[in-house]
């Protein structure tokens, strides 16, 4: 199993900071680069929320946190990292500049993951002159420190070995890697999200419902199903004794009915933005983003914890993973002395192995 | 608050039987009509599953179950009902025949709910010659006995008062009614589901992922979010300190990117059905539909129970409702003697008030 010894995060927005939080809480040192003068405060806020959630997950005590360093350049951030996660805005020119810089200065054996929600790795890795073969998309879901899913996508130049190592590295920090079989824009998660989002915009724009009503329709309805089984297995069960074929025969024809507006894209103008933003303010019922964030995190921890006790105690889906993850964190906490300066120093001085290509490392 | 004194269910498939289970477990007598010779066995199976789930929800003991009667005709089933739920297959001609029959024989003040996933009530109520004004769509989500959501939609002839009474009746059996503001095909829930389903079929057909991988992407990722906050509030929080407007500005443009295949419909041929059915078999890992159903129900109860303890103990979303619902069931159980034949008889003989139009009834 490949593990992460030293990580670098390029970009400290909501997603980048979420990665930083997950890594630090797993006891891994992280060097971050973000030109935003507010970066330190923003990462601190995310870290505070993540620490709070993890304390609920592992009441017996958390592992010693990794050390966070703010680097002045990308070169400095990636210098001794074996895992680098890029989370800069979704512009191909920016991704190219950042990845070229990472590639030029990172150890040759480091894995480079991109948080992009939709850009194809093949289109990004052309900017990497030295080792394009170690780029993978590692697309997470917000909040990164809690949601386990990471979509792994390789480009034309990506080595299968790099995908394997990335998979193990993400799994080592409690995640559920799903390798996408063929490279397409937006991969799988964001295709489904975009489809629903586009339809949702139509429904709001046409006054069929408000954002609060639409959200309620999700969270009192199919959202509860999808937290534990995806749509295919849900439909398999819904098919009753006759199963999937019966379900498909029954619902196949609706595809031809006028049940969606998907043939067109709503115009994304100020009026629509205003409508949605205003309705969203109403929906919040005075709760601040920070308060909503806490509620969201508490809910996610509670759901995963509840699922961890299902399936005859073996746990189910994200709950089974959650069970293993919290056990792993507790074990790590038991092993390491809490906040030992000496241990930190010793760790910082540990040499990082270098190699020409990504290769599997055995857990120490 | 209008409550249901005596219910009729027309159609006993997965959805119809789910309604029967919810009603009976709330202590309400139900008369069902379904021409399927297997109907009794099938409803019995669903009832067994529902009873099992409800026992977990209310460990202190369930209310005395309502009495289930199998009627030989629609006329017999609806004769003394004040709430009638139609759950026959999605064919307009069939809906017309069934609704005409219900309308001809039901008490004038009875509310008629249709479980249709997408047919407009205006198109259905033309078949009701006596009281089309009391038809509403009451679209539930499977499993009906557990998922709280019911979309209520009125047609052109529906009285606002009927919508109000229906809303109260559904709420009285632990549901979350959401009234859809404008009548459209497939309402809100199934528009979102259709959008995601259509995209999912493309992803499977094109070999981007298998049904198991797609399901994992949902249940380890955004499914966990949607069980407690819908997409708009999730995105509000994801926008970070800048909130919804920031999020919209950032993600608005992706609508124009080639992130979905939604402009077209995949051909629904045998090849696609085979591909999906085979992958679905693999995904089940040998678990039967019944076993999966139990797991699903246990998971749903556990998730709602977990959410009932959040938000400083007040409960959140479906969890807050679940808290009230389980309390209500426990209270009902404490009031009524268990399985008293005398009480059953007394109840069966109670006269049902009739009125010309749907009107609000006070809780007895």
TrEMBL record, chains A, B:
Disordered as annotated region, ranges: 335-364
Principal location: cytoplasm
Binding site for NAD(+): 11-16
3-hydroxyacyl-CoA dehydrogenase C-terminal domain boundaries: 187-253
Pathway assigned to this chain's UniProt record: Amine and polyamine metabolism; carnitine metabolism
Enzyme class of the recorded protein, top EC level: oxidoreductase
EC number(s) per entry: 1.1.1.108
Stored Pfam families: 3HCDH (PF00725), 3HCDH_N (PF02737)
Coiled coil feature spans: none
Biased composition range(s): Basic residues: 348-364
Domain 3-hydroxyacyl-CoA dehydrogenase NAD binding: 7-183
Alphabetized InterPro entries for the sequence: 3-OHacyl-CoA_DH_NAD-bd (IPR006176), 3HC_DH_C (IPR006108), 6-PGluconate_DH-like_C_sf (IPR008927), 6PGD_dom2 (IPR013328), L-carnitine_dehydrogenase (IPR026578), NAD(P)-bd_dom_sf (IPR036291)
Localization of this protein: Cytoplasm
GO molecular function, one term: carnitine 3-dehydrogenase activity
Record's keyword terms, sorted: Cytoplasm, NAD, Oxidoreductase
Chemical reaction(s) catalysed: carnitine + NAD(+) = 3-dehydrocarnitine + NADH + H(+)
Organism superkingdom: Bacteria
Complex formation: Homodimer.
Family of the protein in this entry: Belongs to the 3-hydroxyacyl-CoA dehydrogenase family. L-carnitine dehydrogenase subfamily.
PANTHER family: 3-HYDROXYACYL-COA DEHYDROGENASE FAMILY PROTEIN, 3-HYDROXYBUTYRYL-COA DEHYDROGENASE
Record protein name field: L-carnitine dehydrogenase
Organism: Mesorhizobium cantuariense
């Amino acid at each position: 199993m490949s593990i992460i010894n030293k990580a670098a995060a390029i970009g400290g927005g909501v997603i980048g900071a979420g990665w930083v939080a997950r890594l630090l809480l797993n006891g891994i040192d992280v060097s971050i680069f973000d030109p935003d003068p507010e970066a330190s405060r923003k990462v601190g806020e995310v870290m505070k929320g993540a620490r709070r959630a993890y304390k609920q997950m592992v009441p017996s005590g958390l592992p010693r946190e990794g050390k966070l360093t703010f680097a002045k350049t990308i070169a400095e951030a990636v210098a001794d990292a074996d895992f680098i996660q890029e989370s800069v805005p979704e512009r191909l020119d920016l991704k190219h500049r950042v990845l070229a810089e990472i590639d030029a200065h990172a150890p040759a054996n480091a894995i480079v993951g991109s948080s992009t929600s939709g850009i194809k790795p093949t289109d990004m890795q052309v900017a990497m002159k030295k080792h394009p073969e170690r780029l993978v998309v590692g697309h997470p879901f917000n909040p990164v420190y809690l949601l386990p899913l990471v979509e792994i996508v390789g480009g034309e130049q990506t080595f299968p070995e790099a995908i394997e190592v990335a998979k193990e590295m993400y799994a080592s920090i409690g995640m559920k890697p799903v390798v996408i079989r063929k490279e397409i824009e937006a991969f799988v998660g964001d295709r489904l999200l975009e489809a629903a989002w586009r339809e949702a915009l139509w429904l709001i724009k046409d006054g069929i419902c408000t954002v609060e009503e639409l959200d309620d329709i999700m969270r009192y309805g199919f959202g509860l199903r999808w937290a534990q089984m995806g749509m295919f297995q849900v439909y398999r069960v819904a098919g009753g004794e006759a199963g999937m074929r019966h379900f498909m025969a029954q619902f196949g024809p609706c595809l031809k009915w006028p049940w969606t507006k998907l043939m067109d894209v709503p115009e994304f103008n100020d009026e629509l933005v205003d409508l949605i933003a205003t309705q969203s303010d109403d929906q919040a019922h005075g709760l601040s983003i920070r308060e909503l964030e806490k509620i969201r995190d508490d809910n996610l921890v509670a759901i995963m914890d509840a699922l961890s006790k299902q399936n005859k105690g073996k746990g189910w889906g994200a709950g089974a993973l959650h069970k293993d993850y919290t056990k792993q964190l507790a074990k790590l906490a038991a092993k390491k002395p809490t906040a030992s300066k000496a241990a930190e120093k010793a760790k910082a001085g540990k040499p990082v192995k270098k190699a020409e290509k990504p290769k599997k490392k055995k857990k120490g």
